[in-house]
Amino acid sequence: MLFKLSMSGLKSKLKDYLVLLVGLVISVSIFYLFQTLALNRAFIEANSVISQIQFVFHAGSVLLAIITFFYILYANSFLLSLRQKEFGMYMMLGAKKRKITVLMFIETIVIGFVSLIIGIALGIGLSQVIGQLLMKELEFTAGGYHAFYVPSIVVTCIFFLVLFMLSAILNSIKLSRVSVLQLVHSDVQAENSFVKGKKTFGIAFLSIILLAIGYAAMLNMATLQQLGIIISLVTTTSGTYLLFMSVLPLIIKKLKANKKRFEKGINAFTFAQLNFRINSLTKVLATVAMLVALGAGAISVGMAFKNNVMIMVEGFNTYDVVTHNPTAEEKNILADIKFDEKYEYHYKVDDQFVYYTKEDLEKQRPIIQTFQDEKSFRKKEKVTGELPVGSIVGLEDQQSGLAVPEEWAFALDTIQPYYLYPDHKIKIIDQKMFGDVKGKEGIAIIGKSDDFQAYMMEWKKIDELQQKKYGNDTNMYSKYRSYQDMYGFASGTIFMGFFLGIAFLAMMASCLMFKILSGATKDISRYQMLRKIGVRSTLLTKSIYKELFLVFLFPAIVGIIHVLVGMEMFSFILIAPYFRVWLPIVIFTVIYASYYCITVQLYKGIVFPKTN
Amino acid sequence: MKTQVVDVKNVKKFYGKKGENQSIALNGVSFSIHEGEFVGIMGPSGSGKTTLLNVISTLDHATDGVVQIAGTDITIMKQDQLSDFRSQKLGFIFQDFNLLDNLSIYENIALPLSLQGVPSREIGPKVKKVAETLGISAILSKYPSEVSGGQKQRCAAARALVHEPAIILGDEPTGALDSKNAASLLEAMTNLNDEQGVSIMMVTHDPLSASYCRRILFIQDGELYKEIHRTSTRDAFYKEILDVLAGLGTQKA
Ligand SMILES: Nc1ncnc2c1ncn2[C@@H]1O[C@H](COP(=O)(O)OP(=O)(O)OP(=O)(O)O)[C@@H](O)[C@H]1O
Ligand SMILES: [Mg+2]
After folding, report:
1. Taking the model in full, what pTM does it have?
2. A142: left (phi over 0), alpha (psi -120 to 50) or beta
3. Is this entry keyworded Nucleotide-binding (chain B) (predicted)?
């Protein structure tokens, strides 16, 4: 009988249960998604340039487990709150407490079980789809990656069964502790118990210290190695949680204390809403901040590795294309490319030298790389010096005065690649002498397009044509090949970065949305009342936008700071970890902003009645 | 003759879809309230009092008929106009208190003032004054979940009175109050009515509360049944009300 009653209660709160189920399902599937990588040791070791990758994944697993743990606990306390009032009513009418407790236990387990099954199914589907999409996008064939991976399924099942069992027990204990009266009035109890005064400041201080230690560890990762990962993991995570638990209520309190602002229009309500649930929000927001850090961080790292490819390639090759005596086909392709700089040099070859003219070269001074130190790796300049007539490249004896200046030697390295005439030296002569030289005439073309990556297909084609032209024996070298090699080297890491980034951001979204939507039902009557006393619905909408904006803002700020500091960790492997770091951050901001808008819309959908 | 604050003409309200089990809450009610009047509405449970109040207070749409408040036909007003109208001209005391549980009592009472853009320094004194009148000064810093039902009702009343609306609408404002508190609330309302000419329309079951009114409309089954005026003392009026109610009862039975 009681069971039937409770089922009907369940039906009446279908919307809330849906929110709960979606939240749980997503957390299960993201956990699974992560484990398909983390547990697939062969794959990650084969595809990463980071030697400690296995360890990084272990650390990530622990972190994700902690986050998921809090998330599930919260979700289940929400489940309890859904049922409290109803169960209280049953008890008031004489239902036995033991029976109610058992009912709660069963319900938690059943919901957990259902979400586990759907979650794993979704997880398999998601990893398949995301994996395939990314591989296609990155032109990366990840052999050995399995979307359906049994060890991951097993680990996910065990982890969540334990979690659900734990939260079922917790829910039952909580239920058996409170009195009937508390249950019946559970929906009107204020949640505004602050950590008071001095203690708050103490905790805030502690959190700052922890964060400072964490950041210091990240910045000195090169020396600390594995220890650094552990230290920063522990301190940054705990620091973030403490920061949100202490500082956020303080900020809201401060905002609220400003009477002038507070008593203006709907602000009183907006801040009261925030203040009212800030305590239950802090942990979730800290979790969100961590997920933002992980998600945006993973994407930034992926992008940084991707950028690093181009940085390296550009560092070694200034000119996108170098070709000698282009065929008609090559010329056709070259004609379609927009060049920022394109030079043609005439040369002659006899059986000893390759001859270039001083006039030709000095009129078209190429850009070269100046390798002074690591910092100026990417510094590029036009060759400036004069080119002495009669000088020869590669002359052992510098003293003789006939050697080509170093700068020009670099330039000629590009113009006249070594592989064309391996046993010839290059000699500089003037125009008049050039006419007298007897030998095969040739033309060398070097070009720098406006965007190397925009003409990938063209470079590839030219590369193939050149190889045909020079013969298969020639050990040809080109910027395109250098790009291919570098990219192949980094693509596994890029793949993992993007894959994890998407996973973490999805988890973050579900976490935030879940928190906000799970509270929405309680807000219906509040908004209804405000409308009754004559608050325009546009004003109410504004209040919602404002409240949720603040809720979204704090974790984003903290998360992004974590990312910015954390990127320094990769300076040991990346030339410029911060190069274009704004791009992933902008991408993240756009995604995050759309989460915000979606959440506001969903929330409005629940809180405002349908207009008829 | 004073101008009409409320003018209700042949108002009907049906709940549910046409045809199938439609319930008639109001079936052609007409009356008007002049500026500065203190009117009571009485009638058996389910007779349509709350519905009438909701229609007048622009919270609900009438199925048919015209409702004019202060000369404006509210049935043709836009959503935003209605909101502004409610926040400026009307003060409500609802049957269920409708306090915001996440605001303290003080904040709840201050809300209508904040919404109207009253400067912060003027809000405090106004709230304190009205709280004094209703005897809730001591609980201003508490939250609704921490005060008694009667205290909540007085807070709701304070919120309805604080911005000195043109008309106060009350649905059983004294329902949860003991006789002393009920009396002080009614005194406060009478004062507002006498001194500031605020019009009041109040639904009540309690004959004693009703005796504070100047005029009482009785409704039954969604129709106006009888109307009485207070001509002499409150005591006499009280007896008169009792008589009518007795009549209502017997007739119904
Ligand atoms: N939302 C609704 N849907 C359908 N019927 C309704 C609705 N609200 C009220 N009714 C019906 O309309 C009639 C009048 O209801 P109303 O709430 O106005 O009564 P009342 O006079 O205020 O009663 P009480 O003194 O008990 O508060 C009742 O028969 C009621 O069942
Ligand atoms: Mg009623």
Report:
1. 0.77
2. beta
3. yes
